[in-house]
Sequence to fold (115 residues):
Amino acid sequence: MPYMRFQLLPNFVVHKKKYGKRSAQEEEEEAWEEEEREAGLRETAEYFHSLDSDGDLGLDGAEFRSFLLERRPGTNPMLHQSWFGSLDADRDGLIRAWEFDADLDEDALIRFKRK
Ligand SMILES: [Ca+2]
Ligand SMILES: [Ca+2]
Fold:
């Protein structure tokens, strides 16, 4: 169960909603912020999924190369490997959700996975 440790993180949003005493306006603002955050996460997650052609929640060298070819056509392929290396912080050979975007985690990826 490699993704288990993310489910052990406390759910701050639920915690705040349960125990916080806030004005209606604050609540509205927070709900709006949460909505914005979700929309941004969804967009990033869907983009990640569109690159992750084998659906293993990680981008391997080939998937990353297609991403670069689409986003930065004409870049020197020699650079691809070094970009990959700089994103793959834990050096497991895959660019994971949080390596791709600091706001993204695997929970979000799974939540927004197209059925
Ligand atoms: Ca993959
Ligand atoms: Ca990695």
Q: What stands out?
A: Strands lie at 58-59, 95-96. The two ends are 21 Å apart (CA to CA).
